[in-house]
């Protein structure tokens, strides 16, 4: 599918799932959906990494639990090798409070979705993570992150030390706090009395300074550093 006139180019999606029927269903759904294009399909993590490098998708639908290379490791490898802009990675899982999903968000995935969410919600999730101006399902994402940051020192068990926020300006810290609470760029702009474009600039600079790949990863860092506290 190509861009014609004023139409937006199709969102190119790479589908990754080790179950043939699940993968086939996702591919069929995407091919039938306006504004979507299947960039490829992979049956495991290694194939996903290779296809992502070859096809340069906009979004990767990534199964989290696969034999061999897991969705977490595949996410890390894809983002590490990707050209700018990197693909947005949407994790597919069977249940939301999953430490594997948390690990994938920590690695740079943009969000996650339950496999039984239904066609309309899946397509909405692909569109949302591709747009990137808001956290998809912020309440569910916060619940997941809170569940895995409730440790004595505020850091997830077994995790590397969290990012150092000292490099951020006061305004960038304010933006991170609001994003971590699930606000969109427009809502954060209203709260801070600045433009939406300025919020986006602050967020992009924050992600560059801290070496982060996604908005969801910003949320993880905000909780792990204690900038935002569970239940706060």
TrEMBL record:
Residues 12-130 form the Response regulatory domain. The modification 4-aspartylphosphate is found at residue 63. It holds the Pfam family GerE. It comes from the Bacteria. SMART domains: HTH_LUXR, REC. The keyword Zinc does not apply. The lineage of its organism: Bacteria, Bacillati, Actinomycetota, Actinomycetes, Kitasatosporales. The keyword Phosphoprotein applies. Residues 161-226 form the HTH luxR-type domain. This is Response regulator transcription factor. It comes from Streptomyces justiciae. InterPro entries: CheY-like_superfamily, NreC/VraR/RcsB-like_REC, Sig_transdc_resp-reg_receiver, Tscrpt_reg_LuxR_C, WalR-like. Keywords: DNA-binding, Phosphoprotein, Transcription, Transcription regulation.
């Amino acid at each position: 599918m190509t861009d014609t006139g004023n139409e937006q180019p199709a969102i190119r999606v790479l589908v990754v799932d080790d179950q043939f029927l699940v993968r086939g269903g996702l591919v069929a759904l995407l091919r039938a959906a306006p504004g979507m294009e299947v960039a490829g399909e992979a049956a495991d993590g290694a194939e996903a990494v290779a296809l992502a490098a070859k096809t340069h998708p906009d979004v990767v639908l990534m199964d989290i639990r696969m034999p061999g290379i897991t969705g977490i490791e595949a996410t890390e490898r894809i983002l590490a090798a990707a050209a700018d802009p990197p693909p947005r990675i949407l994790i597919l899982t069977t249940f939301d409070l999953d430490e594997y999903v948390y690990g994938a968000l920590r690695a740079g995935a943009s969000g996650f979705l339950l496999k039984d969410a239904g066609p309309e919600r899946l397509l909405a999730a692909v569109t949302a993570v591709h747009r990137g101006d808001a956290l998809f399902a912020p309440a569910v994402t916060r619940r997941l992150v809170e569940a895995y940051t409730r440790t004595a020192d505020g850091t997830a068990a077994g995790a590397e030390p969290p990012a150092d926020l000292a490099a951020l300006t006061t305004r960038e810290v304010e933006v991170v706090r609001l994003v971590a609470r699930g606000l969109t760029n427009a809502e954060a702009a209203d709260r801070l009395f600045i433009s939406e474009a300025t919020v986006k600039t602050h967020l992009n600079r924050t992600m560059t300074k801290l070496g982060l790949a996604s908005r969801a990863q910003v949320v993880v860092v905000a909780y792990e550093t204690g900038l935002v506290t569970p239940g706060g």
